[in-house]
């Protein structure tokens, strides 16, 4: 691997090894996403929520956290645990509907993937408040979409965190679509960050394709939360450049020309061009980073596929104290 990279260049308050690590995490997420679509097409995983071009938000925001801080993902951030070293096979198994796809959140400080929209926002608020009550200096960061900001649980969670001055960071991935519902049909607010005013907390809007802008906003928010300043709402704006999920055909509703523009300006290539141009990263090193991520994914799917199939009875194991007759004898 080429080692002739510059370590003195600073971008967004980060230099050398940090910039390369941020790049590695984006590559890991991108590779996970692209391989997952292929595995889905091959029938090896079930439905899958694509996060192509959301990597700057996920890698940038979590880069501001310490390992003791908690991450609360939605289905769009299903693979975010990769940045903490959570095995790819575990996440792949989640999408395969296998019980081994459920990890113990306390092992990674990554909560379970939340599919009901916004339901994890109060969880993050509760964890942040609880940690504060216990005197532990831990921040909770929750990820959710633009559509989630219309849900009651978004309001309940952010309001509670604000009133309790809980160390929480709320990261809104504003990709401007909630499946086929555009942002104009979602809200009359000028920006989603404006909603923070109603909760009495800071709200900021950043370019969701600029990993350093996301990181800077997250670092400020995490510092504020950690030093007793309470929660922040960060709105990361971009435009969804891939289908909502593998069963969706966006050509029926999306602006395809706009999608092309977004894809041309995609976040990983943009960061790579910056780093290579400044001599922080070389083409060789970028290729090696991609290869490592591809190897990790190949090993992940192989490991996932060697797990024996789950026992269907498990569905009922923790469902009843006294199972009804038809299930007892079923
Ligand atoms: C409570 C709830 N209602 C409806 C759904 C169905 N649903 C799945 S994804 C989605 C759109 C969510 O859009 P957004 O919050 O913008 O997140 P994105 O998918 O764009 O990341 C909806 C309505 C759900 N999962 N949960
Ligand atoms: Mg959305």
Structure report:
- With 330 residues, the chain is of the alpha/beta class.
- The protein has one domain (10-307): Rossmann fold, CATH 3.40.50.
- The protein is 45% helix and 11% strand.
- The protein has helices at residues 16-41, 55-62, 88-95, 105-108, 120-133, 152-163, 183-186, 195-199, 211-226, 256-264, 267-277, 283-306, 314-317, 325-328, and strands spanning 10-11, 14-15, 70-72, 140-145, 168-174, 177-178, 181-182, 203-207, 232-237.
- The strands form three sheets. The protein has a five-stranded parallel β-sheet, with helices on both faces.
- β1 and β2 form a beta hairpin.
- The longest helix is centred in the first third of the chain and has 26 residues, at 16-41.
- It starts with 9 loop residues before the first strand and ends with a helix.
- The mean pLDDT is 96.
**CATH topology call:** Rossmann fold
CATH architecture: 3-Layer(aba) Sandwich
The assigned structural class equals alpha/beta
Question: What percent of the residues sit in helical stretches (DSSP H or I)?
Answer: 40-55%
Low-pLDDT stretches: none
The CA-CA distance between the termini, in Å, is: 59 Å
| Main sheet makeup | 5 strands, parallel
Order of neighbouring strands in the sheet with most strands = 3-4-5-9-8
- The SSE string, one letter per element, is EEHHEHHHEHEEEHHEHEHHHHH
- What is the CATH class? Alpha Beta
Number of domains: 1
Please tell me how large the radius of gyration is. 20 Å
Q: Could you report the average pLDDT, rounded to the nearest whole number?
A: 96
């Amino acid at each position: 691997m080429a080692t002739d990279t510059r370590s003195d260049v600073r971008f967004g308050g980060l230099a050398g090894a940090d910039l390369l690590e941020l790049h590695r995490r984006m590559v890991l997420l991108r590779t996970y996403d692209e391989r997952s679509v292929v595995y889905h097409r091959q029938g090896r995983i079930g439905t899958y929520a694509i996060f192509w071009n959301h990597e700057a938000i996920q890698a940038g925001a979590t880069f501001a956290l310490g390992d003791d801080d908690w991450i609360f993902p939605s289905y769009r951030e299903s693979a975010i645990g990769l940045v903490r070293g959570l095995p790819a096979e575990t996440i792949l198994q989640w999408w395969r509907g296998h019980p081994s796809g459920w990890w113990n959140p306390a092992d990674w400080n990554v909560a379970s993937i939340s599919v009901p929209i916004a339901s994890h926002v109060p969880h993050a608020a509760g964890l942040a408040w609880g940690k504060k009550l216990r005197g532990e200096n831990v921040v909770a960061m929750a990820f959710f979409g633009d559509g989630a900001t219309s849900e009651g649980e978004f309001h309940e969670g952010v309001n509670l965190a604000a009133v309790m001055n809980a160390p929480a960071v709320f990261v809104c991935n504003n990709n401007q679509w909630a499946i086929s519902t555009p942002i104009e049909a979602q809200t009359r607010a000028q920006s989603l960050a404006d909603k923070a005013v109603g909760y009495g907390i800071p709200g900021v809007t950043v370019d969701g394709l600029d990993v350093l802008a996301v990181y800077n906003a997250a670092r400020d928010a995490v510092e504020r939360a950690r030093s007793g300043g309470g929660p922040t709402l960060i709105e990361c704006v971009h435009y969804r450049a891939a289908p909502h999920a593998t069963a969706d055909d966006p050509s029926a509703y999306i602006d395809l020309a706009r999608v092309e523009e977004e894809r041309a300006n995609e976040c990983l290539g943009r960061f790579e061009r910056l780093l290579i141009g400044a001599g922080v990263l070389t083409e060789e090193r970028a290729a090696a980073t991609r290869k490592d991520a591809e190897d990790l994914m190949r090993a992940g799917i192989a490991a996932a596929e060697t797990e024996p199939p789950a026992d269907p009875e498990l569905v009922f194991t923790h469902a009843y104290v006294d199972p009804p007759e038809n299930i007892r004898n079923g």
